Amino acid sequence: MPNETSTAGLEQLKELINMGAAQGIGVGALLGMTAETLEPGRVVFGLEPSERFANPLGTVHGGILSTLLDSAMSCAVHTSLPEGAGYTTLELKVNFVRAVPLDGGRLLCEGKIVHAGRRVATAEGRITDANGKLVAHGTATCMVFPPATGQ
């Protein structure tokens, strides 16, 4: 059962992020995301916008911001999981508040657990720009898969 005092998911997440960063694998490595904070129920990722993330209007594409939010919120859920449990995002809701210029500086995205149940977990997230202004926020619902039992 997920809970905010379990450290198995948090420790696994730290290992996965360290391994992915070292080996250059996963969406975080692909986009250049960095783990700024990893703690029970809360994750902060950083991202430096680049021309690779441009939409036709010359600002950061909403898909990049959505990926950043999904990663932070779902990883916040991951921190609460017991050994052997898994999850997947069921629903992602994103609100874009302002355009993000490609040269606007580093983005920070904080994901926090709202509810961690046995089968469903919810989280919220916020992306702020280099000046601390909100650029997007969202919510996620994750389906939690309990650890397999040896039958």
UniProtKB/TrEMBL annotation:
Gene3D superfamilies: Hotdog Thioesterase (3.10.129.10). It comes from the Bacteria. The keyword Mitochondrion does not apply. Pfam families: 4HBT. InterPro entries: ACOT13 (IPR039298), HotDog_dom_sf (IPR029069), PAAI_dom (IPR003736), Thioestr_dom (IPR006683). GO terms for molecular function: fatty acyl-CoA hydrolase activity. Keywords: Hydrolase. Residues 58-136 form the Thioesterase domain. Belongs to the thioesterase PaaI family. PANTHER family: ACYL-COENZYME A THIOESTERASE 13 (PTHR21660:SF1), THIOESTERASE SUPERFAMILY MEMBER-RELATED (PTHR21660). This is Thioesterase domain-containing protein.
